[in-house]
Amino acid sequence: MLNQTKHLFRQLQRTLGALGGIGLILFAQTAAAAPESKIISFWLDTDKDNTSTISHQAWQDFLDKYIVAEASGINLLKYGAVTKSDHKALKGYINDLEATDPRQYNREEQIAYWINLYNSLTVDIVLDAYPTKSILKIGGSFFSPGPWNKKYLKVAGQKLSLNNIEHGILRPIWKDSRIHYAVNCASFSCPNLSATAFTAENTEEQLTAAAKNYINNPRGIEIDGDDLLLSKIFDWYQVDFGDNEKELLENLAVHANPELAQRLKNHDGDINYDYDWSLNEAK
Questions:
Q1: Core vs surface per residue 16-50: b (16+ CB within 10 A) or e
Q2: Using one digit for the tens of pLDDT, what is the confidence trace for 192-205?
Q3: Alpha carbons 35 and 160: distance in angstroms, whole number
Q4: Are the C-beta atoms of 105 and 56 separated by less than 8 Å?
Q5: What are the counts of helices (DSSP H) followed by strands (DSSP E) for the chain?
Q6: Which SS3 state, helix, strand or coil, does residue 221 take?
Q7: pTM for this predicted structure
Q8: Which of 143, 164, 233, 264 has the smallest number of CB atoms closer than 10 Å to its CB?
Q9: Beta-bridge partners for 278
Q10: Helix/strand/coil (H, E, C) string of the chain?
């Protein structure tokens, strides 16, 4: 019996080894749970009277060179084409943001700051590990794949991870479900990496445009007969969109085209969820 158990265990090891990245991605697809939105109170401070701005021109310059807007409505990034000098400039931009204390700015500057910092750091992390087929292969562990928990940053003396930014700052402070359409995880099924850097002036418009783009694209919502296939984002973060699936669909209908909105409001069939973790790379 013991020998049989050992044999089965070795078979399992070989199977997992053969699956490689596919096994990791499937595990993350089915087992990943969204971190709780829990505010980091240190970042609550703001100076509403400060009218000065934070420059994101370096990030915009990078996006202008390497974003590819597909006819399908999906933005891809030319990771393989990024030059050493441009990658260095990107790191310089991130370093400049690290040296900036966002608490000294108003809320509008802050949200643009955090979204741009999150997205630019994500791209930098991928570039440091490139070539890679998925961000899930960077850092982490089998039970928690990906780089999201590693503290890459130090802002105002505080060490921060990508998860800290998203779940400890952006989600709990702004309490806006459209945040999920703005932060990019470098994956095909993720909402677009915006081709335009966020600023205090354009954030509201960008958040709404990003929501519309994703919800009305098949990677966000796809109808198959009576069944509805949604991005796994709406499962992981349902709490941000509504207390139940009915409220979730009502939330999505707000930014859907008229035909899709009606379909969502009247849906009474099954809801399935899916996600493609392959890199959002322009070949």
A1: eeeeeeeebbebbbeebebbebeeeeebeebeeee
A2: 999 999 999 999 99
A3: 15
A4: no
A5: 12, 7
A6: strand
A7: 0.90
A8: 143
A9: 134
A10: CHHHHHHHHHHHHHHHHHHCHHHHHHHHHHHCCCCCCCCCHHHHCCCCCCCCCCCCHHHHHHHHHHEEECCCCCEEECHHHCCHHHHHHHHHHHHHHHCCCHHHCCHHHHHHHHHHHHHHHHHHHHHHHCCCCEHHHCCECCCCECCCCCCCEEECCEEECHHHHHHHHHHHHHCCHHHHHCCCCCECCCCCCCCCCCCCCCHHHHHHHHHHHHHCCCCCEEEECCEEEEECHHHHCHHHHCCCHHHHHHHHHCCCCHHHHHHHHHCCCCEEEECCCEECECC
Q: Which residue has the tokens 């794949």?
A: 145
- Greatest C-alpha distance within the chain: 74
What sign for the dihedral angle of Cα 167, 165, 42, 175? negative
State both tokens at 157: 């003396």
Tokens representing 63?
């996006």
Are the CB atoms for 40 and 168 separated by under 8 Å? yes
- Name the DSSP letter for residue 38: -
129-155 pLDDT, tens digit per residue, is 999 999 999 998 888 899 999 999 999
Render pLDDT for 62-109 as a digit per residue (tens, 0 to 9).
999 999 999 999 999 999 999 999 999 999 999 999 999 999 999 999
Q: What is the pLDDT of residue 33?
A: 66
